[in-house]
Amino acid sequence: MNKLIFYILFLYFSLNSIAISAQQDTSLFEVDVLGADDLKEPEKDNEIKIISASRSSKKLKDLPVTVEVITREEILMNGYITLADVLKSMPGIKVSQPGSGELGEMFLMRGMSGNKYTKILIDNIPVKPSVVSGMPIESQLPIRQAERIEIVYGPASAVYGADATVGVINIITKSAESGIFSEADISLGNNGYSYINFHAGGKAGRNKKILKYNFYGSKANFDRMNVFNDTSVYHPLDYLEQKDVYWLYEGDTIRPTQLTPSLMSALGLNYSDLYKYNYEGTLSEPSVSNIPSESHIVGLDLRYRGFGISYQNMARKTHSSIGKTTYLYKYNDPKNFIGDIINRVTLSYIKDINKIKTTTNLSFMNYSMDNNSNYGVTFIPEHDKVYQYSASNDIFGEEIVTYFGKHFELTGGLSIQLSVDLPSTNYLFEPFEKEQYNKIIEKPGDFDEYKSFGLNPYKFLNTSEFIQTYFELKNFTIMGGVRHDYNSLYEKSSVNPRVAVLYKLNKKTSFRASFGRAFKAPAGNVLYSSIAFPVGNDSIFYAVVPNNKLKPEFFKAYEFGIRKKMFKDKVYLNLAFYYNKTDNIITTAYVDPKKLNLPYVANNSLEPARTYTNSEGAETKLFGLDGSLKIINPLNRYKLTVELVGTITKGREVLPGGDVIKFLRTMPSYIGKGNVTLKPTRRTYIKVQTTWMSKFQDLFGINYGSFIFGDYSETNGFFTVDIVGGFRFHKNLNLYLKIINIMNKEYTGIDGTGYDVDLRYNPQLGRNIRFGMTFLLN
After folding, report:
1. How far is residue 760 from each of residues 231, 447, 613, 669, measured CA to CA in Å?
2. Which one of 141, 277, 515, 529 counts the least CB within 10 Å of its CB?
3. What is the largest CA-CA distance in the chain?
4. How far is C-alpha 551 from the chain's CA centre?
5. How does pLDDT run across 317-347, given as a tens digit for each residue?
6. Distance in angstroms (rounded) separating the CA atoms of residues 515 and 558
7. What residues have CB less than 8 Å from 106, skipping those under 6 apart?
8. 451: pLDDT confidence band, cut at 50, 70 and 90?
9. 3-state secondary structure of 81
10. What pLDDT does residue 75 have?
11. Pairing outcome for strands 252-254 and 93-100
12. Would the pTM of this model clear 0.70, i.e. be above it?
């Protein structure tokens, strides 16, 4: 029914666009399309005004921090639908499509998990629920409806608080500035892919009494993510190999993945000696089926004389086993999924009084997992499906006041957040129901004490104050600020400063330097992570136990950058040298549940429980260079743009035990990206996007003996190519073809969880072909 509604709305807006455009312009084959102005140029980049870096509008060329901007034209022409699509070509960022069931698509930003350590905003207001460990990302964010997307690199806790650790991403949605507009998209592809989108808006009223309105919605379906190209990576016994399990036979060491039926017989092994209770498949290949995902967004935005109100309903579902080992988690049921829904209402009021501008923001956000969210598991007797549930309600308010002087401005603000969270429950054998919760968890064995394990609702209040100054002095621009946060959950304050300086040597060359501190507060799903299940009439196995004593992680970063235009402004160079350091890191540790006074403990000394903990002695350091070289229109006839993007890093980690490794796990030593954009005729547009990476080390590899061998800790680099081509049939009708991973390369994304339950590496999409149409009317 929902899909039918989307198609009806799409058809309506499509026909409406064509009909009105036909009345306005009777030339069906209008040739005034995608002129030179539509290709992004450095000078135009510099003139784009940015909000996210300083909380007030600034030109990019005047900002002393590293910022990337993706314009609406780029979003439409390149067929961007998800945030990962947008970030894929950005410097210092590595994406994973798919990523995991919990987080959806994933990305690393300067070596850190972007879902967790980046502040994601929609129209300047945070969108991540307080209970989740990281922002879930699929097509449910308003990417296609964005006017632009601002990506600010570096810590920004000085103005945004927790989670703004390695950067801020602000999705600015399109508003009606000149008359009525409507647009619609439809895209179809192989493997059961479909996407549909509509967006309409306009203005009503006269003079200053003008109402601006926007209404939009989109829906994406992917029936079969083709991630099974490399079947060897799904070998279930890889898990035992990572645990350094082996056998000796006739003087040889036999690893689990080397086992054959004849070797098993010679060693006296049965399937029950190797596999858990519910494993399905052969010795080396598990049973697999379709891996689906789907998402949607519906939004409404109204603005009148400084007042604004908006609403978004965002939902997504992703297969829950993505990235996890087939030894413990099953891939043979498409109905094993993690689903979540965000309902978000925001109110705002902006007032200008002479040189003072005030901004008031208020938002209410409700998050809940689909109560049918479940995992297919092999390790629980008599149960191969378990359910989880999580929810939160967040009320957020802030007041920002900015004073504009002749050569400076002063911004200050107060914010308050009240959150009520229900972290992820323990594994349940039936879908979660609040009124029947006790009844549900008593079924496994009627344990009186067991019913309280994994049910940890709590609430907290976070208050903050910040002040920031921005001023210009001849060729210098200086920005500095500090923010104080107090969180009732941790009963501790956090003070985070930021200072940045820009020096303009001349009109074509500028230098920038910055320093900032930030913090990452552990979310409810980390604080109270809980997994336990019965293994007998009077015994419980505790896989993960909570630790509500966790404290925030701390992060600091230094950066030095250069921007330069050369060769008659046809070449644009942007370099950023940076150093990041993280302390008080949250890692996993092993604990004895018996020492925690948990009931009916079945764990033995060889199978302890996991928990999260702060490791005060552990730290990570990352030295890096992000660079981009853009060549604009060297061949005037074809309107060619060539962009080379590179990241070179050198990392170091001090592990919880004090051991030092001379690299940062999951982060390649170099990442290269090449983007070639060409407009061979006035109607056509072509972009080729390449990505290549060096080898890197997995997160789990360092914890096991297999690290010594190197076979299962190091992941090979790769080279991939995507291509998109567009044809403007009419000024309001564009056709496009997009091919993802055109060479059908087998390659890896980011580890699904970062712990030892992951696959050897996280396989990415094979070749996907998508054809689409975009209707526009302005």
Report:
1. 12, 37, 25, 20
2. 277
3. 91
4. 23
5. 999 999 999 999 999 999 999 999 999 999 9
6. 5
7. 84, 95, 96, 99, 100, 113, 114, 115, 137, 749, 750
8. low
9. coil
10. 92
11. unpaired
12. yes
